[in-house]
Specification:
By secondary structure, this protein is of the alpha/beta class. It folds into two domains: 193 residues, Rossmann fold; 157 residues, Rossmann fold (3-Layer(aba) Sandwich). The protein is built from twelve helices and 14 strands. Strands 7-6-8-9 form a four-stranded parallel sheet, with helices on both faces. A three-stranded parallel sheet has the order 2-1-3, with helices on both faces. It has a three-stranded antiparallel sheet with strand order 10-13-14, covered by helices on one side. A hairpin with a 2-residue loop joins strand 11 and strand 12. Helix 1 crosses helix 10. The longest helix is centred in the first third of the chain and has 20 residues. It is globular. 50% of the residues are buried.
Length: 386
């Protein structure tokens, strides 16, 4: 191999409120880097990932990418985790006409419509509605069907698309919103908000929240004894292994979204081995002990880059993007094809209910019976417990 590595630069939130997911992504990326270099690298050269901490601060992102291009002289760049790390980089990416694969950013490209952007997130061509479609489909199948909905969301940009999608899915399923409120990200007492929801007598509580908010909301729901037929929706947090361990049985009954879980129908080639390697190093690296939410998508993100480089035998951004627009990629999260706007051609958001949790041990979350996939139907692993 040539001594000069192929440098792939990007930012991740390795500190700040999204650090838990950023660190999980970084470990998955390291596993890919080690694996590809053990196989001889790409184009006969070793691969070197150059990752910078954006501190969950969108204002730092443009400067990081400017530095990666101008000072680090990276051959390629890619997107970090989530809107906060991806969206602020887009103007620079577009200016330099770079090939750009982002990790789990929701609807980032709707504003830019940049043809060389691709999203490693299973929300498909209509991300806002796809994220919550399963939640409301599950609700609509209950008998009698619930008809009233309360919406409680964080007052933050990331909430806008899921909340709008939730409203569209409410209307589609013949339901109506009877209560809606946002809370500040600085909130730490959620009981007043849950009491307002209780007073609304809504059949369904739909929530869109960040990691720490989700923990506070779930604790407040139990403290206040909320009576609702379905609770959950678009909460960021319950997917994280550390949150699962913290809440344990308090998660029982919650219906929320996930992107991958170790159920039989989602055991695509290579994913079992990758997860085992990830979990063996998670404690040492201080990351999510399970890794189910971020790690498979992060690993697959680099498989996209890898397969595009191998197929084209090139590092040219336009060549890689042109190939990626038409190709089918074989990854640890299954076969992926990208469509208009860089989203997956077919959505595959999982709607999951947490069931039969009895304690706060890690082992029970490795049992598929405790995280039951309800939707989509072709990937279902069990039934809703009302």
């Amino acid at each position: 191999m040539s001594n000069k590595p192929i440098k792939i630069g990007y930012s991740l939130s390795l500190s700040g409120i999204l650090a838990a997911n950023g660190k999980t992504a970084l470990l998955a990326h390291k596993l890919w880097e080690e694996n590809i270099n053990n196989k001889g690298g790409l184009l006969g050269r070793p691969v070197q990932l150059v990752c910078k901490d954006d501190q969950t601060n969108p204002k730092l992102v443009p400067g990081i990418y400017q530095s990666l291009l101008a000072e680090e002289k990276t051959d390629l760049i890619m997107g970090g985790y989530g809107d906060n790390s991806i969206k602020p980089a887009m103007p620079l990416v577009i200016e330099h006409k770079r090939f750009f694969v982002g990790l789990m950013g929701l609807a980032v490209n709707q504003e830019f419509n940049y043809e060389n952007y691709f999203a490693m997130i299973p929300t498909g061509p209509n991300p806002g509605t796809a994220l919550t479609e399963g939640f409301f489909s599950v609700a609509a199948k209950q008998n009698p069907k619930p008809v009233t909905v309360a919406i409680l969301s964080a007052d933050a940009p990331f909430s806008k698309s899921p909340v709008q999608g939730a409203k569209e899915n409410c209307s589609k399923n013949g339901m109506r919103v009877v209560f809606e409120e946002t809370y500040p990200l600085s909130a730490n007492d959620f009981s007043p908000f849950i009491r307002k929801v209780q007073q609304s007598r809504a059949d369904i509580l739909f929530m869109c929240s960040y990691v720490s908010d989700s923990v506070g909301l779930i604790r407040a729901i139990h403290k206040e004894g909320l009576q609702a037929r379905l609770v959950g929706g678009a909460m960021i947090g319950p997917q994280n292994g550390s949150v699962k361990l913290e809440l344990g049985p308090l998660l029982n009954g919650l219906v929320n979204y996930e992107y991958w879980l170790p159920v039989e129908k989602l055991m695509f080639p290579g994913v079992k081995e990758m997860i085992e390697k990830y979990q063996a190093r998670a404690q040492q690296e201080g990351t999510d002990p399970l890794g189910y939410y971020v790690a498979p998508m992060a690993y697959a993100q680099l498989q996209i880059v890898e397969q595009a480089i191998i197929a084209t035998q090139s590092l040219d951004d336009n060549t890689l993007a042109a190939y990626t627009r038409d190709a089918v990629f074989h990854t640890v999260v299954g076969d992926i094809q990208f469509g208009k706007g860089g989203g997956w051609t077919e959505p595959r958001v999982l709607t999951v209910q947490y069931q039969n949790l009895t304690d706060n041990s890690i082992a029970q979350f490795k049992d598929s019976k405790t995280q039951v996939v309800l939707m989509p139907e072709n990937l279902s692993s069990g039934n809703l417990i009302v």
